[in-house]
């Protein structure tokens, strides 16, 4: 069993029930999925960028990502319809908890000048999104094989509709939020 899933069942659920007054353990918000998205805008210039992004995303997530394509043509961006412009992957279940554990314990502390994640990145429905400037913060990425540095978006989708409860859940998982002044 994943370490954070075990922690959720044994520690987080009782603390959340106590703090927010949930009567049923199924009412406690939980992590539903993690979505990783890597927009590769320069894929129009170099077709290999998508292949490298797929390889990197597969190493990071542990599963094969899908290639996202442009829905419509935009002449200003020299973008044609159906052109590959990014990769994304959705992680669920045990693999999701293992990824979150790695993200909290290894990846976020490796970010240069890291002071914590902002609390303002909740969407009003309890989901949390943030961006990473480069994929090299993940230990799975081999620097010798790296063709280009690329940023990515990470979205944590949680059940429930409350930002405060979601922030408390992530805090109990050990998510490093910035200290409020």
Descriptive overview:
It is a single chain. The chain is α+β, with helices and mostly antiparallel strands. It has a single domain, classed as 2-Layer Sandwich (50s Ribosomal Protein L5, Chain: A), CATH 3.30.1440.10. It has four helices and five strands, in the order αβαββαββα. The protein has helices at 3-20, 48-61, 93-107, 163-173; strands at residues 31-39, 66-69, 84-91, 128-132, 152-158. A five-stranded antiparallel beta sheet has the order 2-3-1-5-4. Helix 1 (3-20) packs across helix 4 (163-173). It is elongated, with a radius of gyration of 18 Å.
Secondary-structure map:
Layout (H helix, E strand, L loop, with lengths): L2 H18 L10 E9 L8 H14 L4 E4 L14 E8 L1 H15 L20 E5 L19 E7 L4 H11 L8
Antiparallel strand pairs: 1-3, 1-5, 2-3, 4-5
Helix pairs in contact: 1-4
